[in-house]
Amino acid sequence: MKNPHLRAKLAEVLEAVMPHMDQTPNPLLSSVFHRKRVFCNFPYASHLAEALIKVFVDIEFTGDPHQFEQKFNYRRPMYPILRYMWGTDAYRESIKDLADYASKNLEAMNPPLFLRFLNLLMNDAIFLLDEAIQYLSKIKIQQIEKDRGEWDSLTPEARREKEAGLQMFGQLARFHNIMSNETIGTLAFLTSEIKSLFVHPFLAERIISMLNYFLQHLVGPKMGALKVKDFSEFDFKPQQLVSDICTIYLNLGDEENFCATVPKDGRSYSPTLFAQTVRVLKKINKPGNMIVAFSNLAERIKSLADLQQQEEETYADACDEFLDPIMSTLMSDPVVLPSSRVTVDRSTIARHLLRSFREGDIQPATRGDGLSVLEPWPSLSVTSRRRPRRWSAACGCGLGSVYNLEILNSDRDSERKECAGSRGRPAAVAMTPFDLHEEG
């Protein structure tokens, strides 16, 4: 079956025969027994999780003019199915196998299925929860206006329009809250055992910026804008969202790379944000071990943030040659794009390729060999690793020392020789979607 709409509809059928997770197990109930048999004794059970994830990904590109709105409805029944599968050993292992394959093939020409799935899952989470926040903010404003009597002076027609608008915002907020609860919840249980993909630079910055941004709205000063009269009317579950977000943090918090990436989110992260989160965890009576673990994680991240701040001050005078032309950050793994000969950081181009695949503006046939065609820039990479140490040594000992000045000048001369080959390269230009396409 190739029709993406019909394939997506099969998810509804699968949900209909799935055992209900909140149903009390009772061997005397034949319906429960037969529902479990469908999943446990299915001859192709080992392929079912992969098939479901593939449909989740494929409906992103149906070609239908309404595909953006349709995909959320199509994916709705897939979340409880994935949750049920995760609770079953055989299915959970098949999902973890997909994740392991993705971890080993991150630089393949076509991004692995599970990597694309996680990318789309995070896209949905970002869009859905952000939309829910916007609608709740509008509802809050209109509820205040109505309570103040500002609608009383309106004409009957204008008041009906206001009421209709409030009702519409309520329906939209409820839909986006239901879906965002599912997406964040899915990320929470996936990160309990799948970590390597989430902490990779491809995805770490994205998921961290997402988590911090939503924490800012849920526990920070902005949370007052979301306090509508009745949370349940709009399926708004802030306590569950905060708990799930903190669970994701704790699941990935043992990874050094993940913790070191958190402070780099200049938009939303601050030590105060995590202190506010700890306060909310106490307020909603989360388990003590969870609160202690998150407090320890917050302290660890704060220490890394202080260290990074010192490093940024040390590297403040870094020349443009060592900075990623897109992100303006010090490159840790510089590579050269084959067509334009522009030097960028590997993580930057990796995110660009994954985004391009999602948007459909780069087809597999024009992607060259993906990340495998990127050329390392060894001299720049070596210099990037060595120069900060010399900067740090010079700053620590004081530039007034003649001895240190001589060392610094000598190192600069050697750097000029090391980077002499880079002078013939064109200046950094904006990256195009076809930079990885080899010119024939």
TrEMBL record:
Recorded metabolic or biological pathway in which this protein acts: Protein modification; protein ubiquitination
Domain U-box: 317-353
GO CC term (a single one): cytoplasm
Enzymatic reactions: S-ubiquitinyl-[E2 ubiquitin-conjugating enzyme]-L-cysteine + [acceptor protein]-L-lysine = [E2 ubiquitin-conjugating enzyme]-L-cysteine + N(6)-ubiquitinyl-[acceptor protein]-L-lysine
Gene3D superfamilies reported in the protein's UniProt record: Zinc/RING finger domain, C3HC4 (zinc finger)
SUPFAM superfamilies: RING/U-box
Repeat as UniProt keyword: no
GO molecular function, one term: ubiquitin-ubiquitin ligase activity
Enzyme Commission identifier(s): 2.3.2.27
Subcellular location: Cytoplasm
Biological process per Gene Ontology, one example term: protein polyubiquitination
Keywords, in A-Z order: Acetylation, Cytoplasm, Transferase, Ubl conjugation pathway
Superkingdom of origin: Eukaryota
Function recorded in the entry: Ubiquitin-protein ligase that probably functions as an E3 ligase in conjunction with specific E1 and E2 ligases. May also function as an E4 ligase mediating the assembly of polyubiquitin chains on substrates ubiquitinated by another E3 ubiquitin ligase. Mediates 'Lys-48'-linked polyubiquitination of substrates. Ubiquitin-protein ligase that probably functions as an E3 ligase in conjunction with specific E1 and E2 ligases. Also functions as an E4 ligase mediating the assembly of polyubiquitin chains on substrates ubiquitinated by another E3 ubiquitin ligase. Mediates 'Lys-48'-linked polyubiquitination of substrates.
Homology family: Belongs to the ubiquitin conjugation factor E4 family.
Domain remarks: The U-box domain is required for the ubiquitin protein ligase activity.
Protein name: Ubiquitin conjugation factor E4
